[in-house]
Amino acid sequence: MTNLNIRNVSYSYPDGTLALEDFCLSISSGERIAIIGQNGAGKTTAVKLMNGLLKPTKGNILVGDMDTKEYTTAQISRKVGYVFQNPDDQIFHNNIESEVRFGPKNMGFNEEQVDKLTNWAMDLCGVKNYNDENPYNLPYSIRKFVTIASVLAMDSDVIILDEPTAGQDKVGLERLVHILKVLEEKRKTVITITHDMEFVTEYFDRIVVMANRKIVVDDNVDQIFYNHEVLEMSMLKPPAVTKMAKLLSLSDGITTQAQLLAAISEKVKQ
Amino acid sequence: MKNIIEIKNMSYRYPVSDDFCLKNITFSIQKGAFTAIVGNNGAGKTTLCNAIRGFVPHFYKGELAGEVIVDGKQIVDYQLGQLGEKIGYVFQNPFSQISGVKDSVFNEVAYGLENLGVPVDEIIQKVEDVLKLVNIEHLRGKNPFELSGGQRQRVALAAIIVMDPDILVIDEPTSQLDPIGTEDIFDVIRLMKERGKTVLLVEHKMDLIAEYADNILVLHEGALVMQGPVREVFSDPKYATFNIQYPHVTEVALNLIDIGVPLKFIPIRNEELPKALKMEWEENND
């Protein structure tokens, strides 16, 4: 059980660029949330603060009862695992199994547990068949799954995925959805940054919208994509399903394909 | 219209591989057309791009069978440098395209022209124009390595457009971009088409392909399994068998048909859905 409490956090990069301003967010153990917003809004900075890769310039971040300022990144990352946006920033072994095994081994699990976690994560992420390959010979999308497996194998309570949907095909998206489901069953907290609005509306309820280094809104999905002010301020585009619902003059609040199909077939019957 | 790219019975195998990753591919592309290459990861999309720009086999070696003809000349008869001026290639991963030898975005974008020996005044003018076009003027002084993924993706595109090649091969240019940034990039690509460029684009965002592209090539396990105008390909039942993403509205339409809501035609753009449905409603009201 690890709750996250981010209290009035600001962060400036060493060159003085302010990347995050007065950021407040509480995430309970086991929640699944999506962080969305334009490039440069501060999303990656926010999540790097949550796993201790960055330390706040102002304010505090509590991971469970640990203040990230008082612990090393290695200590925090036992609780909060972060999958980098760019897999090439993360991968450093020349075969997949040693890459995935590295995390749990360093966490001090015994041999048997390390085997079990490594196998489980490689299986779940669909990278087992590529085991003999050097990760750099694999396509970007598969490398991304290698990095997800490496973090999942550490069995941390909180998992942060930074743009897992980038460059994924249908098969990759389906795999991500399956991973989310398995992590929910294991009561893991999952925080995802993504630009894929369909992925957000189909699989997330709680959405944090960021713009200009701040949180614009933290709410349920149907409250966000039908709120003109929020969409304008954060320069978001609603998902295709919402656009279609508007074009058909259906009632507000439709954010998933299932809702759209139901509303259309209802209208056709009338 | 003349064919600027012609591929005939092309197969390709990487040097140490046992299997062909492109299998007996035949198609041609007219000058000025915007063609999208779609298919799931591992289908051979990037390798096909590499064949068109001559990196297969000039750079990667391996075994190439069949013919690749660019602008009337066999690819094997080109020098790689000549192809570089004719075909601009925007990398899938912007993190690997950045040269690493330039310390500002402006210089990074100017790098290609410098290598061609273009006069300095001309370089400056061209780079200024492109920075404006791709909307990265504000980044001109930044180090390319300090940029976000989305910003780098724009710099990578600018660095190629500035060279003014006849053919643009663009491999997933928007994977790291937010929805509005993505539309901006597609607007730039459309502008390139209006200027008469031939565009080949690898992309998973089918809504945008339906909106902008003329034709589609569908790759599946190294084979070219479908080709044709965008609308024909997306509305062909055969497309469903490859488990590739549809435009969202087409997926909705097919699901509607499944649950017994008939449609007048298969829409590929959001705006078409009311028309595809509405006639049906009107008829029901009769």
TrEMBL record, chain A:
Listed SMART domains: AAA
Keyword Iron annotated: no
Keyword set, alphabetical order: ATP-binding, Cell membrane, Membrane, Nucleotide-binding, Translocase, Transport
Pfam families with a match to the protein in the record: ABC_tran
Compartments in which it is found: Cell membrane
InterPro entries: AAA+_ATPase, ABC_transporter-like_ATP-bd, ABC_transpr_CbiO/EcfA_su, ECF_ABC_transporter_ATP-bd, P-loop_NTPase
A single cellular component GO annotation: ATP-binding cassette (ABC) transporter complex
Occurrences of domain ABC transporter (ranges): 4-237
Protein's organism: Viridibacillus arvi
One MF annotation (Gene Ontology) recorded for this entry: ATP hydrolysis activity
Membrane-topology descriptor: Peripheral membrane protein
Family that this chain belongs to: Belongs to the ABC transporter superfamily.
Record's protein name: ABC transporter ATP-binding protein
Main location: membrane
Automatic annotation (TrEMBL), chain B:
Domain ABC transporter: 5-246
Any single GO CC term annotated in Swiss-Prot or TrEMBL for this entry: ATP-binding cassette (ABC) transporter complex
Main localization (coarse): membrane
Keyword Membrane: yes
GO MF, one annotated term: ATP binding
Listed Gene3D superfamilies: P-loop containing nucleotide triphosphate hydrolases
Membrane topology: Peripheral membrane protein
Localization in the cell: Cell membrane
InterPro entries assigned to the protein according to its UniProt record, in alphabetical order: AAA+_ATPase, ABC_transporter-like_ATP-bd, ABC_transporter-like_CS, ABC_transpr_CbiO/EcfA_su, ECF_ABC_transporter_ATP-bd, P-loop_NTPase
One Pfam family it belongs to: ABC_tran
Record key words, sorted: ATP-binding, Cell membrane, Membrane, Nucleotide-binding, Translocase, Transport
Similarity-based family: Belongs to the ABC transporter superfamily.
Name of the featured protein: ABC transporter ATP-binding protein
Species per Swiss-Prot/TrEMBL record: Viridibacillus arvi
